[in-house]
Specification:
- This protein has eleven helices and eight strands.
- By secondary structure, the protein is of the alpha/beta class.
- Helix 3 links the parallel strand 3 and strand 4.
- The relative contact order is 0.10.
- Strands 1-2-4-3-5-6-7-8 form an eight-stranded mixed β-sheet, sandwiched between helices.
- The protein is globular.
Length: 373
């Protein structure tokens, strides 16, 4: 019995000492954890995440792939920015002219549907082709979702807003005008320095500037130029066509293939630009395509705008739905080839012959019997 009591007392002493040691260990580990967390917080550095450049990376991969083909990837500069031009020479020494393509914003500059068959196939018919590369469009931000407050919340929110407005107006009255102006100027400068995107060029400016540089290069071989806009690229092709001088329009034509309005924030309205055009235009469209964009009467709007403009010829050609699939590449190529052969090449060739024709010799009044020629 005595042994049992002694064993119990020893066990209680051991348990008490173990509990005390465990509490001290937990306290020490907690202090160590706090110190480590504080040191990690002090050593933590803000990580800047780079936004993905999907379109830019896609164009770089495409340029690398085309380097091993007949296509020449030419580096040009516009607005102090370098860009690629996919250039393909004609299979003739003296081409009739050039086609400058504005690709659809939803695809790349060598899209296998519509674009690639035209830019490659037309080089076999005395045309040289070039495709612009454009930056990614800047879309309008989607507004944040809001909830409709109840009637009681509306009244309370209106009262709070009125009170806040009165407070702000009172503070503004007591503020020194000179200090307020300095503060506004400082805020504007800091905003511009912290947001360089705000001072960058818009897509409307970039597209026209690049087209001007590309056209200058193409005209070194031939003055004739067909401006081709595919899909949403039709907006930028039309915008460039508006910049042409009246003397240049005899050697230019505008070709719109499945024309759509660009969704970029800086994009002008396509119908309004057609109303200002004075250039022969060919419009290949499909009603179902315009219906899918939410504007079922888009082709009719373009036709009405052309009727009110100074365009001498605005020809609309209805295409089947299959024209915008890979199986419709043959139909589209034949149609574009027919337009160039029947509507464009004859006019350009006749104009070139007139320029090459030697000037008539100046007549000289001679006396009868004179032998001078």
């Amino acid at each position: 019995m005595k042994n049992f009591f002694l064993i119990s007392i020893v066990c209680l002493y051991v348990n008490a000492s173990w509990a005390a040691d465990s509490e001290e260990n937990q306290a020490g580990s907690a202090e160590t954890t706090d110190v480590d967390s504080e040191s990690k917080a002090s050593d933590q550095v803000a990580i800047i995440r780079a936004l993905p450049r999907l379109k830019k990376d896609q164009e770089l991969d495409l340029a690398l792939e085309l380097t091993n083909s007949f296509t020449q990837v030419i580096k040009l500069t516009a607005l102090d920015t370098e860009f690629d031009l996919y250039y393909l020479t004609a299979e003739e020494k003296e081409p009739i002219g050039s086609l400058l393509f504005f690709p659809d914003e939803r695809s790349h500059s060598d899209w296998p549907i519509s674009l690639n068959p035209l830019r490659v196939g037309l080089t076999k018919h005395k045309w040289q082709t070039a495709v612009l590369t454009l930056p990614e469009p800047e879309l309008t931000a989607i507004p944040n979702r809001t909830e409709y407050p109840s009637s009681g919340e509306d009244q309370q929110a209106g009262a709070d807003e009125t009170a806040q407005t009165n407070t702000n107006s009172a503070d503004a009255t007591q503020t020194d005008p000179e200090s307020a102006a300095d503060t506004a100027a400082t805020a504007t400068d800091s905003d511009l320095s912290s947001n360089p995107e705000e001072v960058s060029k818009t897509l409307a400016e970039v597209s026209v500037a690049r087209a001007v540089v590309a056209a200058q290069m193409l005209k070194q071989t031939s003055d004739a130029l067909i401006i081709v806009g595919i899909g949403q690229g039709a907006t930028w092709a039309t915008a460039y066509a508006l910049t042409l001088a009246p003397a240049e329009k005899d050697k230019h034509r505008l070709l719109l293939i499945n024309p759509l309005q660009s969704l970029d924030k800086s994009a002008p309205i396509l119908t309004d630009m057609i109303r200002q055009l004075n250039l022969d235009t060919y419009d290949i469209y499909t009603p179902s395509q315009t219906l899918a964009t939410g504007n079922p009467n888009a082709e009719q709007g373009r036709k009405r705008a052309a009727n009110r403009s100074k365009i001498e010829q605005y020809l609309q050609i209805k295409a089947p739905n299959s024209a915008w699939k890979k199986s419709g590449n043959t139909w589209l190529f034949r149609k574009v080839r027919g337009i160039l052969k029947n509507k464009v090449e004859a006019q350009f060739t006749a104009s070139a012959l007139v320029k090459k024709r030697p000037a008539a010799a100046k007549k000289i009044n001679q006396k009868p019997g004179s032998t001078n020629n």
